Structure formats: C-alpha cells, structure tokens
Amino acid sequence: MSANDRPSGQPTKTYDSAFLKACRREPVPHTPVWFMRQAGRSLPEYLKVREGIGMLESCMRPELVTEITLQPVRRHKVDAAIYFSDIVVPLKAIGVDLDIKPGVGPVVAAPIRTRADLDRLRDLTPEDVSYVTEAIGMLTGELGSTPLIGFAGAPFTLASYLVEGGPSRNHEHTKALMYGDPQLWADLLDRLAEITSAFLKVQIEAGASAVQLFDSWVGALAPADYRRSVMPASAKVFDAVASYGVPRIHFGVGTGELLGLMGEAGADVVGVDWRVPLDEAARRVGPGRALQGNLDPAVLFSTREAVETKTREVLDAAAGLEGHIFNLGHGVLPTTDPDALTRLVEYVHTRTAR
Questions:
Q1: CA atoms of 345 and 98, how far apart (whole Å)
Q2: Is 10's pLDDT higher than 80?
C-alpha cells in the first residue's frame, strides 16, 4: 500500500488535510506549513512547562508531551503537529545508559564498538514506550483534523551517537567501524532498523497520520558509502511501515548529494535543507515524490521584508512540484522570535491560497 491509498483505520478527519494532500501530491487549498523543532525550543510557554524537568523525563510524561506538542499548533496555526520526543528515546527505553545533557546533546555512558556490545540492544516492545501510546491517544483527540507526525531517528544517526558516545563533528569512530568492520556495522544498523521500525509502528498504531525519519548526520557520507552501508537499513525501516499507508518523510542535513538515494530508500516525501533549491532538489529526487522545505532557519532573524523575499524564492522554486510542504531547512533555532514563525505561516498560507 502506498501513501496514495486511503488506508483502513486512517482517521478520515485528517485524511483531507492540506498536509496529507501535499504528501500524496494532490491539489491543496494552500501550501501546508510545519516546522521541525516547532514543539519547544523557542516558545516561552514551552520553557515554562519544562522548567526543572529533564529532556528525557519530559518525553515520558504523556500530559506534558501533549501540551508541548499542541503549543505551536495553537500559536502558529501550522498545518501539522510533530510529536514531542527525542531520537534517543527508543534507545533509553530498551535500557541504553544515556542522558541528554543541556548544551551538549545525547551522551552514551558506554559506546558500542564491538560485537559483544550488540547484545545491549534488545528489541523494543510497545510496553517499553506505553507513554507514547498514551500521549498520542490524547493528542489525536485534541488535534481533530490537524495531522500528527510521528518520528524517529534513522539507523545511521542513532549508530553515530552510540558509537561516538555523543555528538561528533567528524564521526571518526563511526566511519572507522563502518570501513573497518563492514559486517559488524551492517549488523548494528540492522538491529537499529528493527528498533526504529518498532518505535514508528507504535506511533502509527496509536494514531499518527505520517512519520518522519530523521537522519541528522548522514550528510557526512559520500553517496557510494550511503548506498552500500546505510541505505539498506533505512529502506528496511520504510518497508516495515509501508503497509500502514501513512506518508513517510525522510530528512537529513547537508544531504544535497544524497537526495535521490534518500528518496530511493522508500520515502514518499524527501526533506531538503536550505543548501539546494527545491527545483534542483526535484531534479535530483526524480518524479513520484513530494518535497519538504526549505527556508534557511537563520533568515528568521532578519527583517520582515527579507523573510518574505526569501520565502517567495522558496515558493517560486517549488511552483512546479507535484507536492510541496513548506518547512525550514533544519530545525527552529532556540532564540528565534516566535512571532516571526507565526507571521511566516500566515504569509505562506496567504500567498499560496488557491
């Protein structure tokens, strides 16, 4: 079943939304808008409700997850909500000793670099993340006709955190393992693909209308390395959720040279960062897939006129696309003025009204 089918069990109240129509490359009343990292970061109401609560703990409280996920929908009138969580949540749920340190990111106590270490990565069950099922149930009741996007970290990015022990600029340990022990690397990514697939299935079965696979660090690879060492695991994730019929979005940073391959891995929608214009991205991805993106997040710190000018450039580049979802080329920066985001949504909606 493809994203163009009306899957059994899909809530009809979200099926005809502008966001899902764009994912399916159907005519839309306006270009839909949502922002990566819209749930939190720059919102004062987010900072208030999360005061004194660690990131991972926040992700495990259904009431708090629901409130944070709804905040940008209320404030910005975006066309889709993104489930508030973190890509390392499924790893924490299966017992990996890690924490998200403020100003640093995920830090793994004992990196995974040997075959024996693979035993620490057990299968993920729905019971491990029951708080996700509960939160999504609450959210779909509140969101009504606004779709909820579930998400997960892609196998390569999860592997890079596990192998490096935390964020890395050069991914030297990750690449050393990938090049030096290809079989161990393949087994690691396959294990992570199973965990990621299970995590996405929980979200879809709870009511998510679409899913996005974040491969935040995969832009560090050359196309040949991606095709050989990463693409099989990503394709396994997309294939695992294909039967649900919900749109599958794939996004990475600095992935201009990989766009075609990322679509080939099984995405219905390919996310594009700000480095490649959308018309050129469409040429690289090829027909049959919608695109998402791709305003530079830093533009929002400029004048209103400059924001509108750069937004028009994105919309003009997307004019010939079969399907386009407006987004930033990466996540909302923490010090972004929330009002700038609200104005941006209104501008895109007004300018693209059919």
A1: 36
A2: no
Asked about 161 being catalytic, the answer comes back as yes
Q: For the segment 129-161, what is each residue's pLDDT rounded down to a tens digit?
A: 999 999 999 999 999 999 999 999 999 999 999
Active-site residue, from 24, 25, 41, 113: 41
- The dihedral formed by the CA atoms of 328, 332, 338 and 342, expressed in degrees to the nearest 10: 20
Assess whether 37 carries a catalytic annotation: yes
Contact status, residue 155 vs residue 233, Cβ threshold 8 Å: yes
Peptide bond into 294 cis (omega under 30): yes
Asked if 41 is an active-site residue, the reply is yes
Of the listed 24, 25, 46, 50, which one is catalytic? 50
What does the longest C-alpha to C-alpha distance in the chain come to?
A: 58
> How are beta strands 290-295 and 324-328 bridged, if at all?
parallel
Catalytic residue (choose from 24, 25, 37, 191)? 37
Question: Following DSSP, what letter does each residue of 34-96 receive, concatenated?
Answer: --TT-SSTT-HHHHHHTTT--HHHHHT-HHHHHHHHHHHHHHH--S-EE----TTHHHHHTT-
What per-residue confidence (pLDDT) applies to 12?
Answer: 67
pLDDT digits (tens, 9 = 90+) for 179-212: 999 999 999 999 999 999 999 999 999 999 999 9
pLDDT tens profile 231-274: 999 999 999 999 999 999 999 999 999 999 999 999 999 999 99
Per-residue burial over 206-230, b if 16 or more Cβ lie within 10 Å, else e, is bbbbbbbbbbbbbbbbeeebbeebb
- Check: CB of residue 147 under 8 Å from CB of residue 14: yes
294: enclosing H helix or E strand: strand 290-295
Q: Decide if 50 is catalytic.
A: yes
pTM: 0.95
Task: Please confirm, yes or no, whether 283 is among the known catalytic residues.
Answer: no
